[in-house]
Specification:
Layout: H1 2-16, E1 24-28, E2 32-34, E3 38-48, E4 53-54, E5 62-65, E6 68-80, E7 85-96, E8 101-104, E9 108-111, E10 114-117, E11 121-126, H2 151-180, E12 189-192, H3 196-210, H4 219-238, H5 247-254, H6 260-279, H7 285-302, E13 310-313, H8 319-357
Parallel strand pairs: 2-11
Antiparallel strand pairs: 1-3, 3-7, 4-9, 5-6, 6-7, 8-11, 9-10, 12-13
Length: 358
C-alpha cells in the first residue's frame, strides 16, 4: 500500500514539472478510473510549419502497456501558433480491467525522424467495494420500466399519421372521379366505299330490271330516275353539284371533256328527258334503249380507274374535348404524386413508431 502511494505521489510530481526541452506534452483526463471505465490520453508537440510529426499508432484493443488497453485512436488536430509554429495533438481512449496502479512511461514522438519522449504518468484503476457480509442488500434485476405516455414524443407522429391518411383519402377521391368520368376515346373509322361508277351502274341495272317496257305513263319516272343517277355520278366523279344544275348547265360543264361525241349523246339524253318531264313528249322503245346505252357508255368512258375502295374518317376533336383530356391528365399525374407522397410518409411514420416502441 505504501508503495502504491509513493508511485502516485511521484506521478503527480512528474505531471507538475515544466515541459521538456523537446516541448512534447502528455496529459490524461483522469488519473484514476473504475474498472472498465474509459479516460482520454493526449499527446501534443509544437513544431515549425513544414516539419513532419509521427505519433504512436495503436490498433483497437492493443495494449499501451500491459494492463492498459487502447480502445480507439482519435483523429489528430493542429493549431497554428505565432512565429510560424504549429501545435499538433494526438488523442487516444484508454481503459483497464485490473484493479491496480499503473506506471505509464514516456511515449516517444518522432519529429522529422528524430525521437522525442514525453514525461511519465500514472493511472490508478479502482474497483467497486462489495459488501460480502450483507448479501441481502443486493437486489436482483428489475423488470423493464413502463414509461408513461408523453404527448411531446408522439404528437408529431400523430399529426403526420393524420396527414398521411388525408393524402390517401384524397388519392381515393381522385381515383373515383377518374373512374366515374368516361374518357374521351377517338376512333378512326374505315368504311367501305363503292366507286361512283359502280353505284351508277348498279342504279341503272335496277332501272333495267324494274322497267322492261317504258310506257307513256311511266316515261317521266323512268327518265327522272336515269338522269338523277347520272347527276349523282357526275357530282361524285367530277366534283360539281349536278343535282342543283339544269340540263344546259350540266352539258356546258361537261363540254370541257375531250370526247365530244359522248357529250353529244349525253346532250340528246338530257334533252329527251326534259321533253318527257315537262312537255309530255312520247318516246319510242328504240330511243329509250339508245338513251340507256348512252348513259352506260358515258359512265364506262369517264369512270375513274383504281378508285379507292376504303375511306378513312378522322374523328373531330373540339376545344372542349381537348380541355377535358388536359384536365384528366393533370388529375392522373396529381393522383400519382399524392400516392407517392402518401406512401413515403407512411414508411417514415412506421419507421418512427418502431424507433419509439423499441
Amino acid at each position: 500500500m505504501a508503495k502504491n502511494i509513493y508511485i502516485l505521489l511521484w506521478a503527480l510530481v512528474l505531471m507538475a514539472l515544466p515541459l521538456s526541452a523537446q516541448n512534447v506534452e502528455v496529459k490524461i483526463d483522469s488519473a484514476s478510473i473504475f474498472v472498465g471505465q474509459q479516460t482520454g490520453f493526449h499527446l501534443g508537440v509544437t513544431i515549425k510549419e513544414g516539419q513532419n510529426v509521427q505519433f504512436p499508432q495503436f490498433q483497437p484493443q492493443e495494449m499501451l502497456i500491459p494492463g492498459i488497453e487502447v480502445v480507439e485512436t482519435l483523429p489528430t488536430d493542429s493549431q497554428k501558433l505565432d512565429d510560424g509554429y504549429v501545435r499538433v495533438s494526438a488523442h487516444y481512449t484508454l481503459t483497464s480491467f485490473d484493479d491496480t496502479l499503473y506506471y505509464i512511461p514516456g511515449v516517444k514522438v518522432k519529429v522529422d525522424g528524430k525521437e522525442f519522449e514525453s514525461k511519465s504518468l500514472a493511472l490508478k484503476v479502482l474497483t467497486v467495494k462489495v459488501d460480502t457480509l450483507h448479501p441481502n442488500q443486493f437486489y436482483g434485476p428489475k423488470d423493464v420500466q413502463d414509461n408513461p405516455f408523453l404527448w411531446e414524443e408522439w404528437s408529431r407522429l400523430l399529426w403526420l399519421s393524420a396527414a398521411e391518411l388525408l393524402l390517401f383519402v384524397l388519392a381515393l377521391l381522385m381515383f373515383i372521379r377518374l373512374k366515374n368520368e368516361k374518357p374521351i376515346v377517338f376512333k378512326v373509322k374505315i368504311i367501305k366505299r363503292v366507286p361512283a361508277h359502280q353505284k351508277a351502274l348498279n342504279s341503272i341495272e335496277e332501272i333495267k330490271n324494274k322497267v322492261t317496257t317504258v310506257t307513256a305513263d311511266d316515261a317521266k319516272a323512268y327518265y327522272t330516275h336515269l338522269t338523277d343517277t347520272l347527276r349523282r355520278y357526275m357530282m361524285e366523279r367530277f366534283g360539281f353539284n349536278a343535282m342543283e344544275m339544269t340540263s344546259a348547265e350540266i352539258i356546258s360543264r361537261l363540254r370541257q371533256e375531250k370526247d365530244q361525241q359522248k357529250i353529244g349523246e349525253l346532250t340528246m339524253l338530257f334533252e329527251t328527258a326534259d321533253l318527257v318531264k315537262f312537255a309530255k313528249y312520247s318516246v319510242g322503245v328504240n330511243e329509250n334503249d339508245h338513251n340507256l346505252i348512252s348513259a352506260i357508255d358515258f359512265i364506262n368512258t369517264t369512270k375513274q380507274e383504281n378508285a379507292p375502295t376504303e375511306e378513312r374518317i378522322e374523328p373531330t376533336v373540339t376545344e372542349q374535348d381537348k380541355q377535358t383530356i388536359r384536365n384528366r391528365n393533370i388529375l392522373k399525374w396529381t393522383m400519382c404524386g399524392v400516392i407517392v407522397a402518401a406512401t413515403a410518409l407512411l414508411v417514415y411514420v412506421v419507421w418512427e413508431y418502431i424507433q419509439l416502441a423499441i
